[in-house]
Design a protein that fits this description.
about 260 residues; alpha+beta; Arc Repressor Mutant, subunit A; OB fold (Dihydrolipoamide Acetyltransferase, E2P); 6 helices; 14 strands; elongated
């Protein structure tokens, strides 16, 4: 697969009371305070003024549920400025959220490039389908939308109430949606798993590079889906052209656009 020529990027900020609490820079500041035991040394390492660093620490401490930075005096090892155990937990939580965020932007980058390049058939990132909303159920703060495809098979998508209301989605509306190819599981028999959606179709193309295989499946009425699986899985399943397969994926794997 060729590397994306464009990258979708952004930054993540955690807010509290509609005020900026922590972001990448403030996490780095906390980490440097932990290393150097000093706000001024941490600021110098980041090439920022002491005032800017102190103001950031002051804001974080005021917005936090517990102190993040505190001073210790005297005793074994001497005094200085330290971060608290709560600050360490905060850093870990931010890093985990940032990891999810980076994965999300990688998906967006793939989608953006797939729209620009003529390689979508060879290396599809998404299955692109459309259908008609045939049922709509409100479950707490979410909606379960039943979507009928042209091939008459029905899928379920779970969307937030805010999204459904914002898009004004109603029964009989046509919707376009995406399914990531690597979220689709293939079997030769219908099995009982946690996936809400199962599409039946016949294999019309197999592209195998020795590491991964992209299986193209025709579900009927020009509803085409792709599943990207490892070469070893493809061989283990013994998939051949014209085989009937069942493609499973979760309701949350559908992205309405």
């Amino acid at each position: 697969m060729k590397k994306n020529i464009f990258d979708v990027d952004g930054s993540i900020w955690i807010k509290k009371d509609n005020r900026g609490f922590i972001g990448k820079g403030r996490i780095e500041l906390l980490q440097n305070i932990q290393i150097y035991g000093s706000i001024s040394k941490a600021a110098k390492e980041m090439k920022m003024s002491y005032k800017a660093a102190w103001d950031s620490v002051d804001i974080m401490n005021k917005l936090s549920n517990k102190p993040l930075v505190t001073k210790v005096t005297g005793g074994k090892g001497g005094g200085g400025t330290v971060i608290t155990a709560y600050a360490k937990e905060l850093i870990k939580a931010y890093q985990e959220v940032s990891s999810l965020y980076r994965n999300y932007f990688e998906t967006l980058s793939d989608s953006f490039n797939a729209n620009l390049l003529d390689e979508q058939f060879e290396e599809p990132v998404f299955c692109r389908l459309s259908g008609i909303i045939c049922d709509k159920k409100n479950v707490n703060e979410t909606y379960e939308l039943s979507i009928k495809l042209a091939c008459n098979q029905i899928l379920t998508s779970v969307e937030s109430k805010k999204f459904v209301m914002g898009k004004s989605l109603e029964i009989n509306d046509e919707v376009n949606f995406l399914i990531e190819t690597n979220n689709i599981t293939l079997t030769k028999d219908i099995n009982n798993n946690s996936a809400r959606n199962v599409l039946e179709g016949k294999v019309i193309n197999i592209s195998d590079d020795g590491i991964s295989a992209t299986i193209t499946i025709d579900c009927g009425a020009k509803d085409i889906i792709y599943s990207k699986i490892t070469t070893s899985s493809y061989k283990k399943l013994d998939i051949k052209i014209a085989d009937t397969l069942y493609a499973s994926f979760k309701a949350f794997n559908i992205t309405i656009i």
